[in-house]
Write a structure and sequence with these properties.
Layout (H helix, E strand, L loop, with lengths): L9 H66 L2 H7 L5 H14 L5 E6 L4 E5 L3 H5 L2 H7 L2 H5 L4 E6 L10 E8 L15 E8 H8 L8 E5 L12 E8 L8 E8 L2 H4 L1 H47 L16 H84 L2 H4 L4 H13 L3 E5 L8 E4 L5 E8 L5 H24 L10 H16 L6 E8 L2 H8 L1 H16 L8 E4 L4 E7 L3 H14 L4 E3 L5 E3 L2 E7 L5 H22 L1
Antiparallel strand pairs: 1-2, 1-5, 3-4, 4-5, 6-8, 7-8, 9-11, 10-11, 12-14, 12-17, 13-14, 15-16
């Protein structure tokens, strides 16, 4: 079957041609003019920003320089120096302060202090808040600079130092010296001038230089300047002055308004869009007129062709029609003349086409069968290859993960009992790519996997997400958990005391160092330590034998384990008759409550020998809390307190 070539409607082509010739030049010119104007307005916006930046920097520089000049003038004024140390000059001194404020263009708070740093006069500030502020302490720490005859600047951030402001600003400090400075090592200032300028006052000073939607923020100098953006501009200002020891530095952060500065650009773009829209409508109207002119002419030719192709009667297309274009009339005549010749050729072609179509159908069927067979064969090969590759990959990954598990298990002994949870979490995340995984020795929220020992005793708890694993991953997870549980079981046997089944000295050293590290890293806020020593164990062993002594030790351990702090306290047997309790996150009040419980618990507690004679269970206690002592000193302090308690016990006995 022959494939028909795509055709183009001549009317549509003509419309597209006219529209293209009309609109493309228009679009090009409009784009050119818009780009030119946008470039000009962007350059104008840049010039405006540069002018604004220069004006702001010049204004701040001029105002600060004038302020420093005024401070230098007043710091050498003998009347000011005399009035600062004499309260009877308050009225003329107040006029002096008002004149000082009038000489500066920035709203400032002024403090005059005498040689003993007592505030004698102030304007627009609070003497009480200033004298009790951290700023005056910082200023007095710079006494060496003031004694050299120079002033200095400080950035402060404290509220209520000025009457109106945001509580952040810069302080200018200068000494009052009634003589000309000479090159000597030290001066004795007769008083001090402290000028506080709030950042809000500086912002108000330069606000008229910005647009209505824009603002400026002042900050202390930063070693790494802020990065400029489309709406944020950062500048650093440095002012040198002979009266201050170091240059005055300030960082300015502009918050710019692209909306206000690009308003003219937006208006111009809207105007150009309206012009383009009007021209577009005119072009559409022109295209419509051209289409209307040619439409009837081409419709007639199309009608003739369709009628003849369908075998229509000649009378249907022989009606008179006036052509505007002679070429179209000649085309119609040629079409009609060729109609009869084409009809004969079509009949011959139909016969040949029937034979060709039958042959093509047969060939197509054979080709279709062959393609189907080849496609089925390729699919089978791909499926078998894919299955084999997946099997090989799975086996390789399984072997690799098994090697990693064996390698990770060997790392358990190097990390220790307390460091094991974090190591297990890191290893499981690496092996199985869990989103969340947690391992603890005690049950935690969300835990769903228990590690069981050889005696089905729970050794730890694991939770992980996602919960479901593939079959081969689950097998590897089971191997890892079994090895982990066996290691924990062995480690706990090594940490357990054989007589009392409490924790031993090795476990205490490990857990005590672990708590000190957690306190240092702020993982816990506090912890307590209790040292207990059994009273009279040696006489019992000497007179009644070690069997009764062991009963006494076991009874003492049970008393320690049966307090209201059982859930948070660990009991360790660190010697023959000595125990220690560690209590994380326990306050001092709770520690003393535990001490009272232990003292009450031993009252009436007894063990019996083989003859049925009762022997009192008694022990001495020493307590210490991390809020009161350094962690490294806690055991010794508690041990000393325990021995003092034991001394009192034997003294009373």
């Amino acid at each position: 079957m022959r494939r028909e070539l795509p055709t183009i409607n001549i009317r549509v082509a003509l419309i597209v041609l006219v529209a293209s010739c009309t609109l493309l030049p228009l679009l090009y010119l409009s784009h050119y003019f818009i780009d030119t104007q946008v470039t000009f307005l962007q350059e104008q916006k840049t010039r405006q920003l540069n002018n604004t930046d220069s004006a702001v920097l010049a204004t701040i520089r001029t105002d600060v320089t004038r302020l420093l000049d005024t401070v230098a003038l007043y710091s050498a004024d003998r009347f000011v120096i005399q009035a600062t140390n004499n309260i009877f000059y308050s009225s003329p001194m107040q006029r002096k302060i008002n004149d000082f404020i009038g000489l500066t263009d920035i709203d400032a708070t002024v403090y005059f202090a005498d040689r003993g740093w007592d505030i004698a006069y102030e304007a627009s500030g609070s003497v009480y808040h200033f004298e009790n502020s951290g700023l005056i302490k910082q200023i007095r720490d710079q006494q060496a600079i003031l004694s050299s005859g120079l002033g200095f600047t400080l950035h402060y951030q404290e509220p209520l130092l000025v009457d109106a402001g945001e509580g952040r600003g810069v302080a200018f400090v200068a000494p009052l010296l009634p003589f000309t400075l000479e090159k000597v090592s030290q001066y004795e200032p007769q008083g001090y001038i402290i000028i506080l300028i709030d950042y809000k006052s500086l912002s108000s000073r330069v606000k008229p230089l910005l647009l209505e939607e824009e603002s400026i923020e002042f900050r202390p100098p930063h070693p790494i300047p802020s990065v400029d953006g489309d709406s944020v501009l950062s500048r650093n200002l440095t002012i040198n002055h002979p009266t201050i020891s170091q240059p005055f530095e300030l960082q300015l952060i502009y918050s710019l308004s692209d909306t206000a500065r690009t308003e003219q650009l937006t208006v111009y773009q809207n105007q150009m869009r309206r012009v383009i829209g009007v021209v577009f409508l005119v072009s559409v109207a022109l295209v419509w007129l051209v289409n209307h002119l040619f439409s009837r002419q081409f419709s007639r030719i199309n009608q003739v062709v369709l009628e003849l192709s369908r075998g229509g009667e000649a009378s249907a297309i022989n009606r008179p029609f006036k052509y505007v274009f002679s070429e179209l009339r000649n085309i119609e005549r040629l079409i009609k003349a060729q109609r009869s010749r084409i009809s004969l050729q079509v009949a011959e072609l139909k016969s040949s086409n029937l034979k060709l179509e039958e042959a093509n159908i047969t060939i197509a069927n054979k080709n279709q069968q062959l393609e189907t067979f080849n496609a089925r064969l390729e699919e089978q090969v791909v499926e078998k290859t894919k299955a084999l590759q997946q099997t090989l990959n799975r086996e390789a990954r399984h072997s690799k993960m098994l090697d990693l598990i064996l390698q990770n298990i060997s790392d358990f002994s190097s990390i220790g009992y307390r460091g094991l949870p974090q190591l297990v979490q890191d290893q499981l995340t690496m092996l199985f790519e869990f989103e969340v995984v947690k391992f603890t020795y005690q049950r935690h929220e969300g835990s769903h996997l228990e590690l069981l020992s050889s005696f089905d005793k729970v050794q730890g708890h694991i939770s992980h997400k996602p919960l479901l694993l593939k079959d081969e991953e689950q097998v590897l997870m089971d191997i890892y958990c079994q090895q982990l549980a066996s290691w924990i079981e062995l480690e706990r046997i090594g940490r357990c005391d054989g007589l009392t089944h409490s924790l031993n000295r090795l476990a205490f050293d490990d857990d005590f160092n672990y708590l000190k590290q957690k306190l240092e890293n702020d993982e816990i806020g506090q912890f307590a330590l209790v040292v207990i020593d059994i009273n009279g164990l040696k006489p019992v062993n000497d007179h009644y034998g070690h069997e009764l002594g062991d009963k006494l030790i076991i009874a003492c351990c049970k008393l320690l384990q049966n307090t209201s702090f059982t859930n948070v306290a660990n009991v360790y047997r660190v010697g023959g008759d000595e125990f220690v309790m560690l209590l994380p996150d326990v306050s001092e009040g709770e520690l003393h409550s535990l001490q009272r419980q232990l003292e009450q618990a031993q009252m009436g507690a007894e063990v019996f020998d083989e003859a049925g004679h009762a022997h009192r269970v008694s022990f001495s206690i020493g307590v210490v809390h991390s809020d009161d002592h350094a962690p490294n000193d806690m055991f010794q302090i508690a041990d000393d307190e325990m021995y003092r308690s034991k001394h009192r016990y034997y003294h009373q006995a």
